[in-house]
Amino acid sequence: MISRKKAVVWGVALVLISSILTMNIELAFGDKVLVSKEAFNEYKKYNKLYSLEQVIEDNYYTDVDEQNLVDGSIKGLFEGLDDPYSQYMNKKEFESFMQYTEGSYSGIGVIITPGEDGYITVVSPIEDSPGFKAGIKSEDKIIKVNGKDVTAKEMDKAISIMKGKAGTEVEITILRNGKETIDMKIKRQEIRLKTVKSEVLEDNIGYIRITTFDEKTADEFKGQLEELQAKNITGLILDLRDNPGGLLDQCQEITDQLIGEGTIVYTKDRKGKTKYLKSDKNKIDVPLAVLVNKGSASASEILSGAVRDNKEGVLIGTTTFGKGLVQSVRSLNDGSGFKLTVSQYFTPNGEYIHGKGITPDIVVEDVDEQLPTAIENIKKKIK
Predict the structure, then answer these.
(1) Where does residue 83 fall: left (phi above 0), alpha (psi -120 to 50 degrees), or beta otherwise?
(2) How confident is the model at residue 70, as a pLDDT?
(3) Residue 318 shares a structural domain with residue 207
(4) Pairing of strands 169-176, 180-187
(5) How does DSSP assign 246-265, residue by residue?
(6) Where are the alpha helices (DSSP H) in the chain?
(7) PROSITE patterns attached here (predicted)?
(8) For this structure, is 323 an active site residue?
(9) How many domains is the chain built from?
(10) In a domain, 218, yes or no
(11) Is 274 found in the same domain as 174?
């Protein structure tokens, strides 16, 4: 198996080869070509890479699977960024990733992220999933799957093991609070995400819970909000607790219905180019409260920050997860794909929340008191 370090090197070689071949070739002599000085200098700089490739092919103790080398090298290229959110996925891994954004897959139902401490970190368990029922919590670290040690760099491997045929079992070992290890045997099941739930609470206050932002979330939200408005709700509580985020366009559509004309979020790339996502004048005309906690991440934080900075509602609960980076997801011709961090995002008031999260307007540590606090807050504002 190629080492991580060599994988990075070989991955760079592949990119370099492609770059050289696209440069202007000045003259060809049979199987030889005359290239520009710039191209030759680039070749000399990375000559070691070609040599290492040949060493592997000539000396590795068994036959080498060329596709595994290619995949490993490209993974190494992304790992060289030292960014837990940028990742190359082979065809199988990318298909699995896209299944989640489409709203269904078979597994244990936990949202995880590569933690900056090197551990696979649970953002949140999906409500009513096997992982949720087994007691997995936000900020738990998954350190073993079926008895095998796993780290953040092997998250794709861990995911592929945790997913599997519904009805089969997988053993998970978690590290909690940095000191307690817990073994869990969890039975996989088909996870069909219903991302939006709603009901009418006391004093005719509407309640909508969003568990994640997938391809259908905005439409589901619009439909259920219209049903609540038809019942003449006096206020709205939006529950984003343990919502790990998801698709930005879905978050944008939902936020646009909650706040008036203004900025939802803005992003900035490495060149300083800024892009603003805006909302129009149309919005709900009832008091709004948003419930958040440590499991509220990414798109959930964008929505929460927009509500807070535009003064359209109150945030209640505990400090959010703190993910202020934007990833571009792209597919490649062979069915593989990648996530690449392309920009940072800022709340409308210019706050960069990465690594620190958003502190609610009203901090309520007791989980059982968060919803009642939101209800009382809405009651005070009912016209």
Answers:
(1) beta
(2) 80
(3) yes
(4) antiparallel
(5) B-HHHHHHHHHHHS-SEEEE
(6) 4-21, 37-45, 47-59, 66-79, 91-102, 130-134, 155-162, 217-230, 248-258, 299-309, 367-381
(7) PDZ
(8) yes
(9) 3
(10) yes
(11) no
Q: Taking a C-beta distance cutoff of 8 angstroms, is the pair 161, 188 a contact?
A: no
CATH of the domain at 110: 2.30.42.10
Burial letters 337-366, b for 16+ CB under 10 A, else e: bbbbbebbbbbbeeeebeeebbebeeebee
> Catalytic residue at 368?
no
DSSP 206-243: EEEEE--B-TTHHHHHHHHHHHHHHTT-SEEEEE-TT-
* CB-based contact 264:255 (threshold 8 Å): yes
Which domain-ending residue is among 171, 191, 211?
191
Lookup result for tokens 């958003």: 358
pLDDT value at 94 more than 80: yes
- Pair (302, 367) in one structural domain: yes
Classified as helix, coil or strand, 2 is coil
pLDDT-derived band of residue 39, with 50, 70 and 90 as boundaries? Answer: confident
Q: Is 33 part of a structural domain of the chain?
A: yes
- In this structure, what DSSP letter does residue 85 have? T
pLDDT at 54: 81
67 band by pLDDT with thresholds 50, 70 and 90: confident
Tens of pLDDT, residue by residue over 153-191, are 888 788 888 988 899 999 999 999 998 999 999 999 988
Q: What is the pLDDT of residue 64?
A: 86
Is residue 129 flagged as an active site residue? Answer: no
Per the domain annotation, does 86 fall within a domain?
no
Residue 365 lies in domain: 194-381
Same domain, yes or no: 245 and 358:
yes
Mean pLDDT computed over 240-245: 93
Residue in 86, 279, 298, 336 annotated catalytic: 298
Q: Which of 19-28, 126-135, 289-298 has the highest mean pLDDT?
A: 289-298
Residue 19 has pLDDT above 90, yes or no: no
Which of 156, 239, 256, 309 is the catalytic position? 309
The pTM score is 0.72
